[in-house]
Write a structure and sequence with these properties.
The complex is a heterodimer. Chain A is mostly helical. Chain A has eight helices and no strands. Chain B has a domain of 32 residues. Chain B is built from two helices and no strands. The chains are: A mainly alpha, B mainly alpha.
Chain lengths: 246, 49
């Protein structure tokens, strides 16, 4: 079986597909988050050292992972758009930025609410925290730069350069806990070592990660649909859709 | 994990402010994003018509 992927690289054909996918991933996100919260609050035991405050990690770690992952995907689409000048790639990059910024903010906020009872401070200029804050500024800078340029194709190209240069920050965030010996703890979960936490805690965190991931896909696709409608408002398919939409 | 009572659940072993302060803000932000997306779609459709 072969799928003609090029068919979906035009907004006209991708628009209805994105709508269906957003619905499916939104439903999956609800199920995964409900299961993850159940595991996190009713199955996972109290932490021996941190008490109940550790339950913040069920949103903190997934949000932090998503903030980095979405940035890489955004930079990927921005790079594809820059290299091949495809319409949809730039729209995807623009659609990812606000959701990426949202997850970055959630990671910083929940980290702060975990840090206060655990470290005794809301904020510290630790390498991990500072590089994650820079990630938030990169997302906001990308959005501000695009918003400042009227021609969407030029905005895509300028944003793409910023997004690609900013990718250097992602490995800095990821390895910051190894490269600099500051306050933030090292990774509790890695591909090479067995995790240093109870299985049920890990399960709750991973299920919540899937929940955030599915939510991120749904939100990005919904925003991509808005961007397609905005940019292609003069096209037949957009007018047809607008006439049918309530 | 058996919390015993709703009060115990909300107290989170004394960390209620921090745990719920994290979860409530996350929920509010996600709901806000969805509302903004619905509005943006409506205004995009409105501008076409």
């Amino acid at each position: 079986m072969s799928i003609n992927w090029y068919k979906y690289s035009s907004p006209q054909t991708f628009f209805p597909l994105a709508g269906k996918l957003a619905f499916v991933f939104g439903a999956l996100a609800l199920v995964a988050c409900a299961a993850g919260l159940y595991l996190g609050f009713f199955v996972a035991p109290t932490d021996a050292q941190q008490g109940e405050s550790y339950r913040i990690i069920f949103i903190h770690v997934p949000a932090a992972w998503m903030s980095m992952f979405l940035y890489v995907v955004m930079a990927f689409w921005a790079g594809v758009g820059l290299a091949f000048n495809t319409r949809l790639s730039g729209m995807m990059a623009s659609a990812i930025a606000p959701t990426g910024a949202l997850f970055t903010f959630i990671a910083l906020w929940t980290g702060s609410f975990w840090g206060k009872p655990t470290w005794g401070t809301w904020w510290v200029w630790d390498a991990r925290l500072t590089s994650e804050l820079i990630l938030l500024f990169l997302y906001l800078g990308f959005m501000a730069l695009q918003a400042a340029i009227d021609d969407p194709r030029r905005a895509d190209r300028a944003g793409a350069l910023l997004a690609l240069v900013g990718v250097v920050n992602v490995p800095i965030i990821y390895f910051s806990v190894q490269w600099w010996n500051t306050l933030h703890q090292g990774a509790s979960v890695s591909l090479t070592k067995s995790p240093t936490m109870a299985t049920t805690m890990l399960a709750g965190m991973l299920v919540m990660t899937f929940g955030f991931w599915f939510y991120g896909i749904a939100a990005v696709l919904l925003r991509a649909r808005c961007i397609m409608l905005e940019r292609e408002r003069a096209s037949d398919w957009a007018m047809q859709y607008a006439r049918g939409a309530a | 994990m058996n919390w015993g009572s709703l009060n115990n659940f909300l107290a989170m072993g004394g960390y209620g402010l921090y745990v719920w302060g994290s979860y409530v803000v996350t929920l509010v932000l996600i709901v806000a994003e969805l509302i903004l997306l619905a509005r943006r779609r409506r205004s995009a459709v409105g501008r076409i018509r």
